[in-house]
Amino acid sequence: MKPFKGERIFTPGPVELQDRIREVLSRQIIHHRTPEFKEAFLETRELFKQLVDCKEDNFIFFASSGTGAMEASVLNFFEEGDKVIAVVGGKFGERWAELGRKYKLQVVELEVEWGKSVDPDAVEKLIKENPDCKGVLVQASESSTGAYHNVKALAEITKDTGVLLVVDAITALGVYNMKPHQWGLDVVVGGSQKAFMLPPGLSMLWFSEKAKERLTDRSYYFDVKEELKKQKEGQTAFTPAISLILALRESLSILLEEGMEKVERRYRLMSEGMKRAIEVLGLKIFPENPSISLTTVIPPEGIDPENLRRSMLKLGVRVAGGQGKLKGKIFRISHMGMDIMDMPVVLSALELSLKSIGHTFGLGAGVGEYLKAVHPGVEDG
Ligand SMILES: *Cc1c(COP(=O)(O)O)cnc(C)c1O
């Protein structure tokens, strides 16, 4: 039976759009060289400044997917031949290394077993062994494995050195109450279709004063210096993703109305509830230290996650599979843009699909465990 409300999307990008966002996106386009756009753009910048909790407005919005801002980071803050350490513990860590090599940086890869989080001591040791290192490239939330890398601890190492800490926070900024300035991060990348709950096509690039001093002149489209000048004035060098900027103003308002502290607490609770539900069903959580943006699951012996995914899809629930070497080994359930009461939907689909494949457990066990986790006062019976 086809679900008459259509598909629910629980993938780590794109994520479902809230009504408030869809309402903004349904409006007629406005021209970007107008006082109306300028006002909206500057207001969006003010909201973003509140989100990252900084006085300086060292940040840019680009009309690109998240990878565009990753490329911009490599091009704008490093020169050819610069040595960088790339933390590679998943597909997006690999992307940092590939980007670095593409633009002729000297990339030292710090390999982390997929699913594990990087050990800050290993980073510190590698920096000591490479005194000419100019940057560390890392993910906050490595969405391909679901692992969280403790970027705050990494910043303690790089803070008072010449090393720039470049953080891909595409599934972290907007979920975690990140304080890039206070923590001592140098570059932070965000993306629209993940934690910001928008359609794809917009990326965000925040940078520290330390990073600002290192700005290069290596990119035309992603020219941070030029863009910053324009964007501070409420303009952009090229045609901005007008509708997405207006929608970003709305998503920032949604996040700030709830308050980032509460946003993080909500995702933390959902993540804990999902973990307990998954384990009670006899499945395993893949990452050692899970990001609260998504739940990454290893199915029981003999159950193909792709089968499970297809079965869930028939029930109207889309979750993501594994990427790269995790293809066919795991599946991933995003929390981004979801409320606490959304997750029982995905758990229900998971339970029914597990039953159809012959996995044994008491029906409703996962949902029940989740509800107990998110409402600690509730009891069985
Ligand atoms: C999705 C994602 C990216 C890539 O973003 P695109 O918008 O697909 O270019 C990079 N890093 C992380 C951690 C992601 O989750």
Give me the CATH superfamily of the largest domain. Answer: Type I PLP-dependent aspartate aminotransferase-like (Major domain)
Q: Which CATH class of the largest domain applies here?
A: Alpha Beta
- Predict the CATH topology of the largest domain: Aspartate Aminotransferase, domain 2
The CATH architecture of the largest domain can be named as 3-Layer(aba) Sandwich
Work out the radius of gyration.
Answer: 21 Å
Largest sheet: 7 strands, mixed
Domain count, please report it.
2
Structural class: alpha/beta
Uncertain runs: none
Oligomer: single chain
Overall body shape: globular
Rounded mean pLDDT is 97
How are helices and strands ordered from N to C? EHHEHEHEHEEEHEHEEHHHHEEHEEEHH
Number of helical stretches of at least 4 residues: 14
Number of strands: 15
What can you tell me about this protein's structure?
With 381 residues, the protein is of the alpha/beta class. It has 2 domains: 8-15 and 259-374, Aspartate Aminotransferase, domain 1; 19-258, 3-Layer(aba) Sandwich (Aspartate Aminotransferase, domain 2). The protein is built from 14 helices and 15 strands. The chain has a 7-stranded mixed sheet with strand order 2-10-9-8-5-3-4, sandwiched between helices. Strand 11 and strand 12 form a beta hairpin. It is globular, with a radius of gyration of 21 Å. Pyridoxal-5'-phosphate (PLP) binds next to helix 3.
Write the layout of secondary structure elements.
Blueprint: E1 8-9, H1 19-25, H2 35-52, E2 59-62, H3 66-77, E3 83-88, H4 91-102, E4 106-111, H5 120-129, E5 133-139, E6 141-142, E7 147-148, H6 151-158, E8 164-168, H7 180-183, E9 187-191, E10 203-207, H8 209-212, H9 224-232, H10 242-258, H11 260-280, E11 284-285, E12 294-298, H12 305-314, E13 317-318, E14 320-321, E15 331-334, H13 343-357, H14 365-374
Parallel strand pairs: 1-13, 3-4, 3-5, 5-8, 8-9
Antiparallel strand pairs: 2-10, 6-7, 9-10, 11-12, 12-15, 14-15
Helix pairs in contact: 1-10, 2-10, 11-14, 12-13, 13-14
The structure holds pyridoxal-5'-phosphate (PLP).
